[in-house]
Give the backbone structure.
Amino acid sequence: MEKPPGSTEPLDELTEGMRLHLRIFLLEQKKNRHIWLALESTSIVGLVDFYHEPDELFIRFICAIPPHKGTGTRLLRHLAEHGQNHNLPVIRTTVSSIDSRALKFYLQHLGFQKVDTRIKEPGFELYVVVTQPQMLLEKIQISRKRNRSKHSKE
């Protein structure tokens, strides 16, 4: 499979035993801001928009379509590797208190820690969550092993 210009390495097998060939490539880069797309064949199945600050990588937006197929986790794995390669010790993002799916994804599945509440309104809070690239990679590895074990029992 030929890589598009500016691409990262093609992704391997996804969770749940699905043999999808995804490619992640750079859509846009301006200064320290990056947008990566995840493609399956010619369809966009994921996107992440992030930027570098002097000592962290900040995720502005991440999306996987459809959810729960491993694309978001794969994008984050590549982000963690990117953070390590650029000596960025922290990965930070914000998550809404009303988005229970995102809260579970970051806090339970990936091991991010809530460190601040940026906005507090009745019925809504915006949390700041962080992790370290190496810790994220370890959590993803543990999750992959758990998923493989779960699917081999079925």
